[in-house]
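Why this split exists: single-chain examples teach little about how molecules sit against one another. For that reason, every record in the complexes split bundles all components of an assembly together and asks for one structure covering all of them. Below is a record exactly as it appears in the raw files.
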Amino acid sequence: MSSLNVVILAALGYAVVLFLVAFISDRSTRSGWLSSPLVYTLSISVYCTSWTFYGAVGSAARNGLEFATIYIGPTLVFLGFYSVLRKLLRIRRENNITSIADFISSRYGKSDLIAATVTIIAVFGAAPYIALQLKAITTSFQVIGGSSDTVGSAPITALWVAAGLALFTIIFGTRSIDANERHYGVVAAIAVEAIVKLVALIGVGLVAVYHVADGPQDIFNRITETMPPPEEGFGVRWIGLILLSGTAVLCLPRQFQVTVVENVNERHLFTAAWLFPLYLFLMSLFILPIAAVGATTLPPGSNPDMFVLTMPLAAGRDDIALLAFLGGFSSATSMVIVSCIALSTMISNHIVMPLTLRRTAGLSVDGDVRGLLLKSRRIAICGILFVGFLYLEFGPQSAGLASIGLVAFLGVAQVLPALLGALFWPRANRRGAMLGLSIGFAIWTYTLLLPGLLADAKWWQQIAQVGPFGIEALRPDALFGLTSLDPLMHAFFWSISANVFFFVLGSLSRDLNPLEQLQSTLFVDAFRSGSEGGQRLVGRAASADTLFDLAQRVMGANQAYGIFRNYAQAHNQKAEFPVPDDAFINHLERRMASSVGAASARAMISRVAGGERISLDELVEIADETARLMEYSTRIEQKSREIEETASKLKSANERLVQIDAQKDEFLSQVSHELRTPMTSIRSFSEILAQNDRIDDDKSRYFMDIIHDESVRLTRLLDEILDIGAVERGDDFPVTLIDPMVALKRAVDACRGLAASAKVTIIEHHTDQPAVTLANQDRLTQVFINIISNAIKYNDAVKPEIEIETTIITGTFLTSVSDNGSGVSEHDATLIFDKFSRGSKPTNEKGAGLGLAISRTIARKFGGDVVLARASQTGAKFNITLPIASEDHNQTNRDDTLYTKPLAESV
Amino acid sequence: MAKLTPLRRLKDIAAIAPIFGFLLLIPPVIGLFATEATVFGAPLVLVYLFAIWLALILIAAILSQRLSQAERDDPK
């Protein structure tokens, strides 16, 4: 049994060594080994706290292999370092991120509300965790120093330890406020501690295997003997714990601090990717042997959480026990130190600073910001440790080491959805992050934190049993009746599910504002677009003096002067202070962000330089190279589609031209044929008259008559051809709003003489609804005359009559002209509208056969048509349709359109 | 179409490796080894767990070494 004095001496000596290491490292900044990947990896091992050192053995003694899940999660995360961790490091470097809260808030529009929320979550999660470390130290003191009465009361020990840790952290952790200036002293001390705890645990393990037990074979037997049956323990909880520990290694404020913020070189990650998992593997290697040996050799009822100490003590190896004590001390102190640094930075940057800025609502930032930050950090460190101490003294005493650690894990795990969204989901926005974080945090508090804290409170036990207000579905350990999971997995399931759900829902519920859009691009496309590219879109202005005044308050005069001068030199500006353009203001904001966090830096710069005006158009344009490429290819695609369309249009136009050309040829040949017949008879009869003198007068008069008739026919034919040409070109008849009834009446009147001479009766039925149509009065009359006169001329009935009827059917003025003749034969029905066609019926009419063709062409010019509606044996029926002009044009009075000139002859 | 450079291939492997590792270490796969069987006296599931763990560390080492090399060859 080592005496108390030896233990105290060892602990003090160890503390002195740590102070020395930190002190020397701080002096010799940037020197070789301190910026090596090995030191970086060792500092990450702050993940292994006293919970690992003592608690893992306890967990192994109770639940067998389950302890390994806490190290498998981080192993998997580091195996996938290239996709997540590397991106975190890159974003941190380009945006001067100071903490996990800063990271999240910076991504979601530099929101101070989000930063404060994450800070509060982190503090809530960390307080019991820090208490756990203090508890481990005091308990180990009691165990190794003998019974508790010889050591003095535990609270005194805890207080002394807390005070020492506060001192160390304040000296080495708040030397500067700039996140770009690493805490070399702290990092070095933690690296040393990492080695001590690994060596200590392996030492205890070797004692267990070779001193107490008889080598590996005996250990395996003891493990088989003490471990719960292997079939158990691989269920939901196993999976959940792996996920939880993987989350914790990313989201715990202290892990973010050492892995991301304190990183000096991105390439160190390539080493840490395998070296850190190897460290965890070695730490885990002897956990089971120690647990098995402890369980088989120590008296029943011994606290398994202290096997690491009690086992070598019982074996008589006081030296190893002392080493183990120092190992546990290292695990606890390194965790507390880094946690305090991370948390105090978050508290000062995201709670104290925004509150100060809000209080001093004036235009400028008053006072010494740097001093305020340092002071608030120091106070925060003391505060955190004091809260931890209070929690240790007055908090619940029942919880084992492991369960407190897991409660903290799940608390910070609430940050994960927002973190992954920040890295990979461009649409994630502030509303979603805020909703997810606060709802997840609330559920975690209600289902896991409070049940632990208030386990001894009567009123809480009441709630836990019957639910709040007697609502069974809201019982904290069986939300909505879910009882199949243990409390941790129950809280895990509900808090993370709700968190993710509301994060996604909130993000989809609105678009990103310009600043969010900009930050989203900077984060999600961290490897693609240069950060400067995005930053230059922000337009602000302020004088260099005002900016310097602000900067020196935040960073101190020396550093601020350095930034201004270096920038001016780097940009080849002669003056001492650079031109305060957009680029410089953004540069300064990012430098200030490394001291006070993105949200506060932005708020301060905005006070002197005005709010940023981000051009969305520019932003969208440069935002994403992929988007640009896609747009380009879409444009090319569109163009080729347009070309294709044009080509097909040209093709159809060409076909149409060929068709029209054929029609023209046909027309010409028909015209020639039609002209040739009368010309032939005129020529032959005139030849006869010229060559034969002895023709009597009667005969010659007869021949002359024929020549005259044929000439008249020829003239009429040429008139019609000219007419159809004019109609088809559409010239010479302007269209106006007219009443089709007027045109029809004129046509009927014009045909009455013809009808009388052919003894044809005309019957009329007219609609009394008024109608107007867009047409030409004379041309429309011509159409009616043509149809009616045809009906008269071709009517071969014994008692011939024709019927004219007008109706209005759905926007169409319909005129039908039917006769009771022998109709049109089926063969003729397809031909009569062609040019130069006459019905096959023998008739004495001498037309060129262009009448119907002209009528149809005219009607179509007016948007109507002429069709053969009935071609039966009992008579033909022609329908003339005309579209009725809309009502507002319906002002044309029937009386306005009196016909003034004689009617054209029927064709 | 982007060319499948060694870096690109390695990136994809690095992204998928943790998922495979996770699947190997959770039920039902790990349940297959949770039996009474022993290897040299050690419970089978214990040996399996630590062997996979060590293999994952080895893969992480190889991947990071290759990625580091590929990044140097493909400066982008």
